[in-house]
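Section 4.2 – Deliverable D4.2 (structural model, holo form)

The reporting period included a commitment to supply a predicted holo structure for the target in complex with adenosine-5'-triphosphate. Inputs used:
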Amino acid sequence: MEPPQKGHANLFQVYLRLRPPQIANLGSERFLLVEEPVDHDTPTHITLNPPNDRRRAIEKFAFTRVFEEDATQLDLFQGIRVLPLVEGVLAPHGGDGTDGLLATLGVTGSGKTHTMLGSRSQRGLTQLALDVLFRSIESNIVDCETTPTLETSIRSSDASEAAICSASAFIETMYTDFSSSRGGSRATTPMIVGPPNNPDQPATHITTPLLPGCFPSSPQSVRLVSHDDDLSRIIHLSTPPSQKEEIAPPTLTQVASFKLKPKLAGSPSPQKHYMSLTSAARIKKNLTKCPIKGDHAPLTPRKNLQRPSAFPQAPDISSVRASCDPSADYAVVISMYEVYNDRIFDLLTPPIRSNGNKEPRRRPLLFKSTELSPDRKVVAGLRKVICGNLKDALMVLEAGLNERRVAGTGSNSVSSRSHGFFCVEVKKRRRGRHSSRWGNSTLSIVDLAGSERARDAKTQGATLAEAGKINESLMYLGQCLQMQSDASSTTKPNLVPFRQCKLTELLFANSFPTGSLSSSTNGRRAPQKGVMIVTADPIGDFNATSQILRYSALAREVTVPRIPSITSTILANRNSSGQSQRSESSVGSRSDTSSPVLVHHRPFYHPSGTHSHTFSPAPDTERATMENAALEIARMADMIDQLNAELTQETETRMAAEAHVLSMEDRMADLEQEIREECYADFEQRLALEMGRWKATLSLEQERGEEHWDRKVEVLARSVGVTVTTPSSDEDNVEDEDKENILIESLEQENERLRREVAILKRELSGRTPSKRTPLRERGDVPSARASSSTTDTLGDLGNRLEQLRVNSGEGKKVLKVSSSGSPTKKVRKLQTRRWEGTAADDDLM
Ligand SMILES: Nc1ncnc2c1ncn2[C@@H]1O[C@H](COP(=O)(O)OP(=O)(O)OP(=O)(O)O)[C@@H](O)[C@H]1O
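Output (structure tokens):
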């Protein structure tokens, strides 16, 4: 197998890092061996020997470089050439930079997060890359403090519809200050280790173990961040855990027992994992205690975090600097997001509470083309923070990690449940040209979630569904990586099936040159430089490790060992005529001594699914028969291997699909709940609006009605000649009443007289024959029809008046009084009714 070519056509340089043995696996057989470099001074090949099964193929893999267990973070930083990646984004020779992508891939617990983010005592590649970046541009960097217009100018040139803010504003909202006085918005210098500013905050000093069971001779400061409401604090540790209880003040007992107890099962090292310090880790840990199907870890609302007083400083790279463009101004903008269940979530935007829902939620973001970036997809709507120095960038990183989803599983006590993206955008423009647009190139650092087997990880419910999604996305990533072994495919994005899921889209979208003119650069963008670090445990899970290595390695070779017993069986069948004894002995001896059969190189999965081996016609000689038989066996063994691998993959795909269904069901339930809440809120709002409108209309109508009745009463009162007056005094009242009584009496007498006359006339009329009957209107003693009608009117009026006066004399006053303020409807109606009754009676008389 040829050693991998450095440079050139592959989309990713692929490095392999082996992790030191975990205590739990110390007795296990080592299946991964690093081959001695022949021409190269650094190892590039490894061999996988299947444990406990001598019949399985031995596989050999080639990588750009292999880092053995003793490799330090600094070795990694130098060996995988982070410096050229940083220089790529800085574009020291002018023009636009080249995007860089640094990602880790591996089985759960193999050391991905450790490599990228480090531990409490050692910085990871992320911190080292940031350190070298900021140091390299320190004389050319502009930040919001020195250039107030920076925020606006960056916002106007940003193509991703991002919410851009300064680091000071972001840190101010995310962190509480140590000092209760909250003197300023700036954090204390993180690289300086010291006691907390606030003397009220207790601190203890305990040494950080560097390796299991080892403690450095000189005290080394590390930080522990607890987000318990009452215990939020940062502790400086400077004694071994064995002594910590004697030194820790009683108030810290809770903190110490939570943070410092070395955990052997599932947590191989007493070193606390970087991610274990986050609140999300704690939530997930709680979740794994009672994982029920469909359970979701509630996201905590963003609380103010405690400002860390110190960050690890080792390894020291203060002498390392990348070249930058001296004629350019630089600005650094940081964003962080995670891909969880195939959806993108911002890690720098606090979760929001939806209407009526107590659980805070994040809104998934879109990976799409925008107006300012029509030919390139970007994650739209992220929060981006402009950082002027390393300290600010580390604080932003810390805040984002606090939101990252992690959980304790059977394979890793602090397992990443999402693919984390940390993006450092380096903006560049010509020095002093404040009006020119910012050029943009990005260094993305990706900590992928690890593949895991549900059986080993002992996951259930939501954590199992997450694992299914993780495995599914890693399977797609594997397919894409396999395609890169074919050098011709690298410039043809269509041949790399990277659009199958969000993860591969995000990782590969910039791997190919853009086809059209870029709106921001007026030129073709160079494809990104990709570096993939594959992490593996040489005594961990063989099947999971070999699967990852198969699709990530740059080259592969399979050697199938000879198996005498099977060969002899075939030969025995073939030479059934008594030659079997001779054949068997010769085969046995040859098989044992001959070299293994080389089966094939990459790609492992042949597109057609088969491997063609041409055999020459079987010669008569035993030797030729044996060779053919051995080849046949090798082919069949290879096929079995391949089928086994396919079966494993299919099984995992099925599990992933099942998990996907579960997570979709959960999502549907969530969506339904959200929609219900929205509908409910909407309905409530509309109801309130309608009620308001209805009440307004009702009161208007009431007012109108009252006015209307008031007017009617007024007209009525005027028509009967009653003046609505308010009696001025009791004397006046008495006087008025006397007058009214006299008037009533005279009117009653008049009325009586008229009735009598009418009765007489009626009698006269009824005594006459109809023919002799003279019409009343012709009679001299009877008033004319007109007079009659006027009499009727007069009678009606009189009755009416009488009634009105009666009313006036008694409760009438009250009615009229009421009429000025309220509605005397009933009374007035009564008056009218009486009047009509009276008229009707009169009509009857007629
Ligand atoms: N090279 C190493 N040196 C020392 N400790 C290591 C190394 N690699 C990993 N570890 C330790 O092993 C444990 C698991 O590592 P880590 O969390 O980085 O795994 P991971 O691959 O990120 O897992 P997951 O995919 O589940 O998130 C941690 O406690 C870490 O400190």
